[in-house]
Every structure is written in C-alpha cells, then in structure tokens.
C-alpha cells in the first residue's frame, strides 16, 4: 500500500524531473519546472504517469525482497561467524537483491517517461541502459 501511494503521489514529480534532466537529449528547449509541468499537462494528464507500471510492480518486490533475502541469508550463515558478521553479510545480500530487481524497473520507467514507447519495445530496442533510443524502434 505504501509503495502504491508513494508512486501515485510522487510519480508526476518524478516525470517532471526526468523531462527536465533529459531536455537536450530529447531535443526540447530548456524550461522551468512550471513550464515543463504545463507542457506535460498539455499532452494529457496520463503523461504524468508514464512509466508507473514497472514502479508499481517493482514496489511490491522492493518492499518484500530485502526481508526475504536477509532472513534467508542470515539463516544460511553458520552461527560460528558471530552475530555482527552474520548481520552485516545478510544486509549486504539484501541490498544486492533489491538492487538487482530495482535497477531494471527504474531504467524501464525512465525510458517510458522520456520516449513513451511500449515496455516490450523498450526492452527489444537494446538500449534500455542508454539515453539514446534505437532509431529503428522510435520511427
């Protein structure tokens, strides 16, 4: 619930921020925050929520995965390691697990915000981790 609420409230602001950060890349002129938001609103209010699907889906995993990985790692480590070492290694494993899930969701969200392509198109383009889209996909 908290992840969904945060996405619904914060995603429009994130979209404005992303548009402003990618102005030159997208061929748009520099604009203020208010001008950028007004420009997005002219296209339609749904535009503020471009890329929200992977964020909402990922939020479910982001909230539960670290706890699952932490407890699994903590249980698997030998008791002879000592409490502080087990806690440290379990925390590192939990953070790594979340990063592996969260990074692709964030990259997909940003590509959707900037280029407004379908999610599968973005993945097929082969440029999900780069700023410039594949010209064959954006035609």
UniProtKB/TrEMBL annotation:
Show the GO MF annotations: transmembrane transporter activity
Q: Which keywords fit this entry according to its UniProt record?
A: Membrane, Mitochondrion, Repeat, Transmembrane, Transmembrane helix, Transport
Q: Which domain of life is it from?
A: Eukaryota
Q: How is this protein positioned relative to the membrane?
A: Multi-pass membrane protein
Q: Name one Pfam family in it.
A: Mito_carr
Assigned protein family: Belongs to the mitochondrial carrier (TC 2.A.29) family.
What is the designated name of this protein?
Uncharacterized protein
Instruction: Output the lineage of the source organism.
Output: Eukaryota, Sar, Alveolata, Dinophyceae, Suessiales
């Amino acid at each position: 619930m908290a992840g969904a609420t945060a996405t619904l409230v914060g995603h429009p602001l994130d979209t404005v921020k992303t548009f402003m950060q990618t102005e030159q890349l997208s061929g748009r002129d520099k604009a203020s925050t208010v001008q950028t938001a007004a420009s997005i609103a002219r296209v339609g209010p749904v535009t503020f929520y471009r890329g929200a699907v992977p964020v909402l889906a990922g939020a479910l995993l982001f909230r539960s995965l670290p706890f699952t990985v932490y407890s699994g790692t903590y249980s698997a480590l030998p008791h002879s390691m000592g409490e502080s070492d087990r806690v440290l290694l379990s925390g590192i494993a939990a953070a790594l697990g979340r990063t592996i899930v969260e990074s692709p969701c964030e990259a997909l969200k940003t590509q959707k915000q900037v280029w407004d392509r379908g999610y599968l198109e973005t993945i097929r383009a082969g440029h999900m981790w780069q700023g410039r889209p594949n010209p064959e996909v954006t035609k």
